[in-house]
């Protein structure tokens, strides 16, 4: 589904990612973990075709990632992407006009699920509700890859909970692969199948969440603490 | 996410334990249908593959049966339900006894101690 083949990305002299290889399967939820500056966002941007590797290849659904292939990739950034004067329903119309795979019906269902009213102005929404709206817009598309960059950052536990439940209710597990980049792992560990750990642009490891518990008796957060101490 | 999980045990097994307890407490009765994998995943805030494994494990234990196209149901076999209760009791006894042994208690002291504790608690 997604392959990183000896991928390096340099920004000037700074190493964003150094010689990273891994491979992701369809229909799973992956966690991309590491401290700030570890290369998580760079990895997501490479999959979305927003940046190109300095060397190596990023393959998405059999093709090298680029902006064109990225029509099938949803990339939810950490920054807000809204026009503040829009109402929620204007934003829905705008997405509908921009993305062929956008479903207005699904969007309405999700707004309902998240308790958002379509007549509200975006500039009047709380940070939590803006976070919810971002997820509504993302999950209303049918693209095969869903990239979430720090979807929980700065949100209170209630909002985090509704985002986790929204993901679990509306992801199409038959067709969609989800990658969640975060440094706040504790709450979302039960949501993940596998985890890819990065540090300073280096690949630390990739493992199944349940296997780590079975074999080492460790949660991901404990594993991270041990690894980063050394 | 509603529920917390211990780090030392796989999540799917912790959910197996929770469902088993609900069955023993009769919150889930023999013949009851379990929620769909997706509904259970949303409720527990965990990955659906984890719930899939939970249901497989419960099926292996013969505590539930899946009927094709209909869902997963709690068994009506009283013998299996009794065994489930006995097994869970024994697991709790085992850890209780081994903890008290580490304190150096004899069997007699354990029983006397437990009786005294229960008397106090029921006052």
TrEMBL record, chain A:
<dbReference type="InterPro" id="IPR003439">
    <property type="entry name" value="ABC_transporter-like_ATP-bd"/>
</dbReference>
<protein>
    <submittedName>
        <fullName>ABC transporter ATP-binding protein</fullName>
    </submittedName>
</protein>
<dbReference type="GO" id="GO:0016887">
    <property type="term" value="F:ATP hydrolysis activity"/>
</dbReference>
<dbReference type="InterPro" id="IPR027417">
    <property type="entry name" value="P-loop_NTPase"/>
</dbReference>
<dbReference type="Pfam" id="PF00005">
    <property type="entry name" value="ABC_tran"/>
</dbReference>
<keyword id="KW-0067">ATP-binding</keyword>
<dbReference type="GO" id="GO:0005524">
    <property type="term" value="F:ATP binding"/>
</dbReference>
<keyword id="KW-0547">Nucleotide-binding</keyword>
<dbReference type="InterPro" id="IPR003593">
    <property type="entry name" value="AAA+_ATPase"/>
</dbReference>
<feature type="domain" description="ABC transporter">
    <location>
        <begin position="2"/>
        <end position="225"/>
    </location>
</feature>
From TrEMBL, chain B:
<keyword id="KW-0238">DNA-binding</keyword>
<keyword id="KW-0804">Transcription</keyword>
<dbReference type="InterPro" id="IPR000524">
    <property type="entry name" value="Tscrpt_reg_HTH_GntR"/>
</dbReference>
<protein>
    <submittedName>
        <fullName>GntR family transcriptional regulator</fullName>
    </submittedName>
</protein>
<dbReference type="InterPro" id="IPR036390">
    <property type="entry name" value="WH_DNA-bd_sf"/>
</dbReference>
<keyword id="KW-0805">Transcription regulation</keyword>
<dbReference type="GO" id="GO:0003700">
    <property type="term" value="F:DNA-binding transcription factor activity"/>
</dbReference>
<feature type="domain" description="HTH gntR-type">
    <location>
        <begin position="9"/>
        <end position="77"/>
    </location>
</feature>
<dbReference type="InterPro" id="IPR036388">
    <property type="entry name" value="WH-like_DNA-bd_sf"/>
</dbReference>
<dbReference type="Pfam" id="PF00392">
    <property type="entry name" value="GntR"/>
</dbReference>
<dbReference type="GO" id="GO:0003677">
    <property type="term" value="F:DNA binding"/>
</dbReference>
């Amino acid at each position: 589904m997604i392959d990183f083949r000896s991928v390096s990305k340099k920004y000037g002299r700074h190493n964003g990612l150094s010689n990273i290889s891994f491979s992701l399967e369809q229909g799973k939820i992956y966690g991309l973990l590491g401290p700030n500056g570890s290369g998580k966002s760079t990895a997501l941007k490479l999959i979305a075709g927003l940046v190109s590797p300095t060397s190596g290849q990023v393959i998405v659904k059999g093709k090298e990632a680029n902006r064109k292939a990225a029509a099938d990739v949803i990339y939810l950034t950490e920054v807000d992407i809204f026009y503040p004067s829009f109402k929620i329903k204007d934003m829905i119309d705008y997405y509908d006009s921009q993305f062929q795979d956008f479903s207005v019906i699904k969007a309405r269902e999700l707004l309902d699920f998240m308790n958002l009213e379509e007549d509200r102005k975006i500039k009047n929404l709380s940070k939590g509700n803006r976070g919810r709206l971002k997820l509504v817009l993302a999950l209303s598309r049918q693209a095969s890859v869903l990239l979430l960059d720090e979807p929980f950052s700065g949100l209170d536990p209630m909002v985090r909970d509704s985002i986790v439940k929204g993901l679990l209710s509306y992801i199409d597990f038959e067709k969609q692969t989800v990658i969640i980049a975060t440094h706040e792992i504790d709450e979302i560990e039960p949501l993940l199948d596998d985890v890819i750990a990065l540090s300073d642009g280096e690949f630390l490891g990739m493992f199944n969440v349940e296997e780590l518990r079975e074999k080492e008796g460790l949660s991901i957060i404990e594993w991270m603490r041990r690894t980063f101490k050394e | 996410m509603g529920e917390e999980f211990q780090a030392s045990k796989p999540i799917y097994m912790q959910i197996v334990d929770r469902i088993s307890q609900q069955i023993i407490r009769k919150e889930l009765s023999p013949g009851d249908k379990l929620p769909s994998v997706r509904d259970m995943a949303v409720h527990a805030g965990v990955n659906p593959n984890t719930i899939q494994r939970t249901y497989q494990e419960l099926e292996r234990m013969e505590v539930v049966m899946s009927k094709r196209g209909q869902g997963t149901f709690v068994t009506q076999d009283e013998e299996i339900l009794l065994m489930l209760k006995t097994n869970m009791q024994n697991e709790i006894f085992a850890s209780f006894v081994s903890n008290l042994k580490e304190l150096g208690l004899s069997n007699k002291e354990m029983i006397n101690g437990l009786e005294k504790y229960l008397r106090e608690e029921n006052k």
